[in-house]
Amino acid sequence: MEPLRPAGATPDASSEGAVAPDGTVSSRGAGRTRAAAGLVPDTVTASGERRLAQGSEPVCGYVSVVVDVPSRALSDPFAYAVPASFDEEAVPGAIVLVSFHRRMVAGYVVMRASELAELPGAAGLAPERVLPVRSVLAERAFGPVSAQLAFWMSREYVASVAECLRLFLPPKATPRVRKLEDGSYEVERPKTKEVHERWVTLTDEGRGYRPAVNAHRQRQLMEALSCGPVTTRELNFLYSSMSATIRTLEKKGIVAIEERRAWRGVSSEEHRLSSARAQVPESLTEGQRAALAAIERARKAEAGDVVVIDGVTGSGKTEVYLSAIEPVLAAGKSACVLVPEISLTAQTVGRFRSRFGDAVAVFHSRLSDGERLDQWDMVRSGAARVVVGARSALFCPYRELGIIIIDEEHEQSYKQGSSPRYHARDVAAEMARRYGCPLVLGSATPSSEALERCRRGAHRGQAWTRVEMPERPGGAVLPRIVVADLRREFSGGSRSIFSRPLHDALMGIVERREKAVLLHNRRGFAPFLMCRECGCVPTCKHCSTALTYHERTHTLECHTCGSVYRVRPYPAPGSRCPQCGSPYLAKMGLGTQQVEDALRQLLPSDVAVIRMDADSTRGKDGHARLLEEFDAAECAVLLGTQMIAKGLDFPEVTLVGVINADYALKMPDFRASVRAYDLLEQVAGRAGRGERPGEVIIQTYLPHDPVIRAVASHDRSVFLSHDLAMRLDAQYPPYVRLVNVVCRGRSEERTRSFANRFATEVRRVLKLRAPASAGRGSGLVVGGLPVVLGPASCVIERAKDRYRFHFLVKAPLDYDVSSAIAEALARVGEERGISISVDVDPYDLM
Ligand SMILES: Nc1ncnc2c1ncn2[C@@H]1O[C@H](COP(=O)(O)OP(=O)(O)OP(=O)(O)O)[C@@H](O)[C@H]1O
Ligand SMILES: [Zn+2]
């Protein structure tokens, strides 16, 4: 056996701890207020402005304003004076127009004081140097807690305060200030408008009114109104033009017309899915009662405690959420429920609406601007006190937040992929702390971060408690799991997509007229090589990650440390598996469409084959339509990518098949196996949720991998003990914190050298901050000093014509790594043509 040899770089090991000559470094104080330098600009056009401050107006107070300019360096607020005419509007939360460095910009008021010296950091400023607020662009858009949260997020995620504050604004409300050619400025306002509807109601007098026998129209109108108010739009639609009749009866005082705000996005569209209702169950399971008791304790404690519901698939977590929200609403407070974007289907939303009616606002990415704005206003006005949405629903203008619930807590989609790169779980925990309300995290496969915090019992001063729900209600049992060993299938001469066990099970479904779900996962697919005979996937010698195959250069590359290995994949002569020497070291890849074709060939034509992937679900109701089709079919197979794995509750599904579990297993990322485990456990959970028992068939070349063994035995510890030992050994979360810094630029050389300078600066800052007691060369992370790894090329080396280099910082859990990076960033400064992204607690290391 000949080992693969590195042909390129070796890992950077130059991060040595050393005693700093001087332990302290001055840093920019967050929340300090400065004076904005510059002259009052030329003129401002009054487009959209009600009025502008006059230079001579008396000053009635001072405000701290965060200016909305795209620079990380400008996070500190600046002081402005409040002219008397804006006394009432220039309050914290308002958006104002101010002049800043000779131009006009929008800014957010974060504090107000009557004397300049009362603003933090403004003590030394001379009042005559402070410029006036020129105009108020929008009334109060966020409250004081939101402002504090934005400052917290800015520090935690090394992002500008303005960009964090923007999260709390009404949808599309960020005003743009543009300089026109003639030197004047124009404020572009959001274009979305409110919609009002006219409602027709019977007056008290009208109730006894009997129209004349021949007054046909009037009789129709009276009948339509007998059950309650109706909109003029509906009346005109039902009885083509009712306007004249309405006017007549209004004059007589029989009906009244009232204008009300219409809430777009609360479509009373029928949910045809059988499972989109949530009847109150006759009794709760023991696990459900225990979970509710823990949530109730957290609610009473008012300390922002966290309850992790560790409940197997189908254990009834949704029912726990619904029951936990009831006392919150009874206390007059609001509830925020986050679900993964993919779960925001008729099924989940229907369950909440069937329990709480129209008081449920919903946020998902398919809403139009108008719908989004209305849903937001519904929350602000108090008309909706339950919000169900994807991660951004955290930032709604809640009236007294009383509970935050995050379903499928382990989901990667809770991490925002662009700046500010926050994680909804951590922001929610901080919000829970500030509001003193419980945070509930539910999952069948809780994240290792959540489990570790529960094991310790606390995190950042909040209590973390885990409650198990090990059983499905009503006697439903977890499905039987069969592992189909593809190596044996291959050596037995089979080249089919379906192994013998999966083939037979599908035939059983056809015979019994049941339903099956087939998973073909290709998310984040990076080409890799795998031995078709022994299942070996070449991994890096310096890192425990799978190597990525580069077709052009015939190399395997490690994207964590940069090592490069030459390779000849099958069918090139000389192809050899590094483990068993087999010539079948082949590139892996198979599309969903190919699987669909094979299914149609295999199954009789009266079996519905429904494919759900990014292509087939385009369009507004793509998902719902396909699910309804599956629901309505008598006998069907639902084939899809990971989007079919979660949350779906179809009792008639008795078979789940996984085409190839190994795509999910071997990704160049330390979280690859936990993602594979989560996915397999979730998809397996779609089987046997009803009365009939379920079966799961997992096809794999790696039947002995701890992930497969854990799923097969319904025993998470088989996987966890292996995964956690690896993470502790390699120093990965949940034992340390990671920060991934990516630098992008058109010039490869300049980007590389910038990344080097930045990494060097980070190392310097870390050294300076190290306590004198830290020994020389101490590179320990757990309980020791942070280390910097890299820079190296990113997995995706070049994207959109930009070269990408990254370095990783590993720091102890309680180390303030964000401020160290912020300080290093301030020292290297920004460079033209190079963009930097700082990702604290990253999920995507590609
Ligand atoms: N106490 C109960 N008695 C009877 N049926 C219940 C009870 N609680 C929940 N159910 C039903 O059990 C089914 C599964 O519940 P639910 O979808 O909430 O599971 P889940 O824990 O969210 O599962 P997953 O993690 O797989 O999404 C639903 O059809 C629900 O109506
Ligand atoms: Zn490596």
From TrEMBL:
Pfam families tied to this protein: DEAD, Helicase_C, PriA_3primeBD, PriA_C, Zn_ribbon_PriA
Cofactor: Zn(2+)
GO BP annotation list: DNA recombination; DNA replication initiation; DNA replication, synthesis of primer; double-strand break repair
Protein name as catalogued: Replication restart protein PriA
Residues involved in Zn(2+) 2 binding: 540, 543, 558, 561
Cellular component GO terms, alphabetical: primosome complex
Enzyme Commission (EC) number: 5.6.2.4
Residues annotated as binding Zn(2+) 1: 531, 534, 577, 580
Keyword set, alphabetical order: ATP-binding, DNA replication, DNA-binding, Helicase, Hydrolase, Isomerase, Metal-binding, Nucleotide-binding, Primosome, Zinc
Domain Helicase ATP-binding: 298-464
GO molecular function, one term: DNA binding
Lineage of source species: Bacteria, Bacillati, Actinomycetota, Coriobacteriia, Coriobacteriales
UniProt source species: Enorma massiliensis
DNA-binding in keyword set: yes
Subunit structure: Component of the replication restart primosome.
Region (Disordered): 1-34
Its job: Initiates the restart of stalled replication forks, which reloads the replicative helicase on sites other than the origin of replication. Recognizes and binds to abandoned replication forks and remodels them to uncover a helicase loading site. Promotes assembly of the primosome at these replication forks.
